[in-house]
Amino acid sequence: MSERSGIITFQGNALTLQGSPIEVGDSAPDFSVLTTELAPKTLADYTGKVILLVTVPSLDTPVCDVEARRFNQEAADLHEDIKVLTVSTDLPFAQARWCGASGIESVEVLSDHKDLSLGLAYGVAIKELRLLARSVFVINRDQKIVYSQIVPEVTDEPDYEAAIKAAQAAL
Which of 103, 102, 159 is nearest to 135 (CA)? Predict the structure, then answer.
């Protein structure tokens, strides 16, 4: 398994990312995650859609909470063919509770807790914490990566505007 250091930090401390790094132009790797109802989801479930794929360490943390709410707000105004997925390693039960308490309705929240399938496929699994790095990928209808951001400091927010523009441009 590939490991990379020097890409992200948590409060200034270096962390190790596991998995295969992906770049703009690459085919989007498949993944297997769970919905809040424990149903499996894979990349194939979103065929024909533009995917704004957001990974966060944990919805129960302040920055992730702000980020997920912001993408939920943005998603409400996006074209119906843009699907916003927020993925963490939180348990599906915790995600369902958080979504209900937070009024999350416009993004699909998914769990990578079982196998780290998405985290490893997209190179955003944090070895030391078994969490996902804060990242955003945009996948076009042809399932190619057209935008990629791995946020260097885990406690910082992503570039919302750039991600939204990339998703809109991929329509």
Answer: 159
Listed in sequence order, the DSSP H helices in the chain are 62-75, 92-102, 117-121, 160-169
Length of the chain: 171
Do strands 82-88 and 50-55 pair parallel, antiparallel, or not at all (unpaired)?
parallel
Q: Quick one: tokens of 94?
A: 């915790």
Contact partners, residue 46, CB within 8 Å, separation at least 6: 83, 85, 139
For residue 1, what pLDDT band results from cuts at 50, 70 and 90? Answer: confident
Pair 141, 127: CB distance under 8 Å: no
For the CA atoms of 83, 78, 102, 66, the dihedral, rounded to the nearest 10 degrees, stands at: 100
Catalytic residue positions? 64
DSSP conformational letter for 166: H
User: Tokens at residue 26, please?
Assistant: 């690459």
- Alpha-carbon distance of 40 to 72, in angstroms, equals 22
Query: What is the predicted pLDDT for the residue at 23?
Result: 97
**pTM exceeds cut of 0.70:** yes
